[in-house]
Amino acid sequence: MTRIAVIGPGAVGGVIAAWLAQNPELEVEVCVRTAFERLEVETPGGPLTARPLVLTAPDQASPVDWAIITTKTYDAAATGGWLARLVGPDTRVAVLQNGVEHVERFSAYVAAERITPAVVDIPAERGAPGRVRQRRDGSILVPEGAAGEAFVALFAHTPIAVSTTPDFKTAAWKKLALNCAGAVNALTLRPSGVARREPIAALMRALVGECVAVGRAEGADLPPDLPDAVVEGYRSGPADGVNSLHADRAAGRPMELDARNGVIVRLGARHGIATPVNAMVVALLEAAAEG
Known about the structure:
The chain has two domains: 2-166, NAD(P)-binding Rossmann-like Domain (Rossmann fold, 3-Layer(aba) Sandwich); 169-290, N-(1-d-carboxylethyl)-l-norvaline Dehydrogenase, domain 2. The chain has an eight-stranded mixed sheet with strand order 5-2-1-6-7-8-11-12, sandwiched between helices. Strand 1, helix 1 and strand 2 (26-31) form a beta-alpha-beta unit. The chain is of the alpha/beta class. The protein contains eleven helices and twelve strands. The longest helix is centred in the C-terminal third of the chain and has 20 residues, at 198-217.
């Protein structure tokens, strides 16, 4: 029996935990702040339910085979308390978060070589603790290697497309390009359909253009037409789609600004690359959050 702990089962974490729990050979537990009786996920194929073991404090935890982190990026310190109890001599840690600093964010709590970073594309929204709407089956990318292959195997029974990639850095920066454009939705408090307005699309292209420049300096292989591709993705997707930055601002919750836009500004400064549009977005959203 393989034991898996999902830390922070919100939208994506709830989907992951519910699907993993469908395999009787996997023992799934979830690490949460607010307890719930069961997971209920509205998937593209119909309703999915699961009853994982629910832990509400780190002192209830013990070492597992896999610790899967799906918390917000700014919750790394709180996650460290869980990792101190969940990580044993043979535990592998997968980080399913936004941004391009998966390993750096948790190397203070776990040895870097034991961390498997993951790029996640599973559109989902949490309605309440334990209740999630999954809009697409989605996908997860992890680096090639033994740990990556072991992670892929965990999802063999699910419809989620989980695979390895030989160029994880490029995959992570491509996802960041998509996420950084989503700051416009948080600013306007309008869903994805707002990208069909050309002035909004132009702002998104500018955000992504800066991301491409910094990503290339970091070693990612990003195509020049990525800004147009990102905008087209927003325009062709569901007009009512709400990304997590938008949802968090609308609910008055902390936002992952640093992982989605601030990182572009920080790393741009390191390389001497100007990122005025991302810097402006960060400043405006920080001010809005304070208000």
